[in-house]
Amino acid sequence: MIQQHINQWARQIPSWVVYVLLLIPAPWFFYLGATGGLGVEPIKALEHEYGELALKLLVAGLAITPLRTHLGINLIKFRRAIGLMAFFYVSAHLLVWLVLDVQIVSQIWADILKRPYITIGMVGFILIVPLAVTSNNRSIRTLGPKWRQLHKLTYMVVLSGAVHFLMLVKGFQLEPILYLAVILALLALRLPKKRRVAA
Amino acid sequence: MAHRWKNNLTWDDVTPEAAFLNRRQIIAGMAAGGIAAGLGQSASAAEGLEPNTWEEITTYNNFYEFGTGKGDPAKYAGSLTTDPWSVEIDGLVDKPGSYAMSDIMSAMTTEERIYRFRCVEAWSMVIPWNGFELADLLNMAGVQSGAKYVAFETAVRPDEMPGVARNVLDWPYVEGLRLDEAMHPLTIMATGIYGKPIPNQNGAPMRLVVPWKYGFKSIKSIVRITLTEDEPPTSWNKANGKEYGFYSNVNPTVDHPRWSQASERRVGGGLFSPRIPTLMFNGYEEEVASLYEGMDLSKFY
């Protein structure tokens, strides 16, 4: 069975490998941006690369539980690494926006308050911070059952990321709609079985 | 009538292409020196109006008929057949009909126009266009007295334009100008850049350039020009009327609902490119402000 192969293979890979592999794109894209590899307007390109990678990792993190419950593939040991690296890229995306893109402090505040897609993006960032801070064994121990409750915020974070993307594109574009559809599907798989059958 | 408008930028301001790289390094050095000395440059001085390189102008484009990515037009527009090409000029004109591009070119006098180009997405370039005044073309067809607006239409060719397979916009792309805007000496039909034929991704064989309006008004690869009495529909206004008005004049005091228009970034400055203030009417206030006298520009955005 392919699941067993994957599970066996996953058992042999330490989770630090995931951190290392997922760290590589950050300096790589920055290097590309600085040397012309991201085109003639590298600031927006870098912002988009970090943002889209963050969204992909959020979706990947959301897929872990359905993969186990529906397909028997157990990748749960990588979930913390994926979640923390998603936080890392959300932060990198935000930093590029603040420092390289908008630059002007008064305009940053105006944008956060006045532009709904930026407001939603910021809400997503604020919500992911407590998740990143509590992504360690000690927090799981001290928070007990509250930890699970707290980490349900992930759903809001992922949704806000996808809506942020959907709201910022011009015209009718497919890509952000596909992200949102995948996220809604992954969330739907979490609904109790009975309700899903009824729906 | 050619040469009605005298550019304050001449070819003396343009560096030979081979020297681009060197010049960029020198300018970067000058900019760094300026910052170190704490010099506050005025907007016009800071402009310097150094034209963007051929590479910048031809690899960073919005031409959704070839895809929504900035690099898509350069990648896919090669498939567009631009020769032969003809433009239908109809509506309220004396001599309606199909005008062959070759006939238009032999009738028009092309000249160089180095213009600022400001995209609604808050990036900008300086582009050395070659072209002729739209007024000359319209006069060739003979504008009738009842005409108040000019409508433009881009080619739609599913076989040659991969982007039109998706309904990102309602194809064909259409744009429009008020007749006085169209007849203004700053308004040109561009057929070249840097003295070379205009590349497909920039709107070959002929595209509009209205330098005081956001870039999307400057419709590309035009196949139809119609003189009308009523204000014609425009593509982005149809797609999202709250964000894109008919006029779409560059105006730092009227924000796009999703981002500020107060500043812009000149393409080509790299990862640490500074924002520069956006100028009223993109720096052409002196020439065009009178067209909008008495109009509330926050209402007619």
UniProtKB/TrEMBL annotation, chain A:
GO biological process terms on file: protein repair
Presence of the UniProt keyword Transmembrane in the record: yes
Cofactor: how bound: Binds 1 heme b (iron(II)-protoporphyrin IX) group per subunit. Binds 1 FMN per subunit.
UniProt keyword Transport present: yes
Main localization, broad class: membrane
GO MF entry, a single one: oxidoreductase activity, acting on diphenols and related substances as donors
Pfam families from the UniProt entry: Ferric_reduct
Positions of transmembrane segments: 16-33, 53-69, 81-100, 112-133, 153-170, 176-192
Keywords for this protein: Cell membrane, Electron transport, Flavoprotein, FMN, Heme, Iron, Membrane, Metal-binding, Transmembrane, Transmembrane helix, Transport
GO CC terms of this entry: plasma membrane
Subcellular location: Cell membrane; Membrane
Cofactor: heme b; FMN
Membrane topology: Multi-pass membrane protein
Superkingdom, taxonomy of origin: Bacteria
Limits of the Ferric oxidoreductase domain: 54-161
Cited InterPro entries: Fe3_Rdtase_TM_dom, MsrQ-like
Free-text function comment from the UniProt entry: Part of the MsrPQ system that repairs oxidized periplasmic proteins containing methionine sulfoxide residues (Met-O), using respiratory chain electrons. Thus protects these proteins from oxidative-stress damage caused by reactive species of oxygen and chlorine generated by the host defense mechanisms. MsrPQ is essential for the maintenance of envelope integrity under bleach stress, rescuing a wide series of structurally unrelated periplasmic proteins from methionine oxidation.
Family: Belongs to the MsrQ family.
Oligomer and partners: Heterodimer of a catalytic subunit (MsrP) and a heme-binding subunit (MsrQ).
HAMAP family: MsrQ
Official protein name in the record: Protein-methionine-sulfoxide reductase heme-binding subunit MsrQ
UniProtKB/TrEMBL annotation, chain B:
Keyword Oxidoreductase: yes
Processing and modification events after translation: Predicted to be exported by the Tat system. The position of the signal peptide cleavage has not been experimentally proven.
Cofactor mode of binding and number, as noted: Binds 1 Mo-molybdopterin (Mo-MPT) cofactor per subunit.
Catalytic activity: L-methionyl-[protein] + a quinone + H2O = L-methionyl-(S)-S-oxide-[protein] + a quinol; L-methionyl-[protein] + a quinone + H2O = L-methionyl-(R)-S-oxide-[protein] + a quinol
Binding residues annotated for Mo-molybdopterin, in chain numbering: 61, 64-65, 119, 154, 202, 207, 218-220
UniProt superkingdom: Bacteria
Keyword flag Ligase: no
Cofactor(s) of this protein: Mo-molybdopterin
UniProt keyword list: Metal-binding, Molybdenum, Oxidoreductase, Signal
Record EC number: 1.8.5.-
Any single biological process term in GO: protein repair
Ranges where the Oxidoreductase molybdopterin-binding domain occurs: 81-236
GO molecular function: metal ion binding; molybdopterin cofactor binding; oxidoreductase activity, acting on a sulfur group of donors, quinone or similar compound as acceptor
Family membership noted in the UniProt record: Belongs to the MsrP family.
Assembly and binders: Heterodimer of a catalytic subunit (MsrP) and a heme-binding subunit (MsrQ).
Stored NCBIfam families: PRK05363.1
Function: Part of the MsrPQ system that repairs oxidized periplasmic proteins containing methionine sulfoxide residues (Met-O), using respiratory chain electrons. Thus protects these proteins from oxidative-stress damage caused by reactive species of oxygen and chlorine generated by the host defense mechanisms. MsrPQ is essential for the maintenance of envelope integrity under bleach stress, rescuing a wide series of structurally unrelated periplasmic proteins from methionine oxidation.
Protein name per its UniProtKB record: Protein-methionine-sulfoxide reductase catalytic subunit MsrP
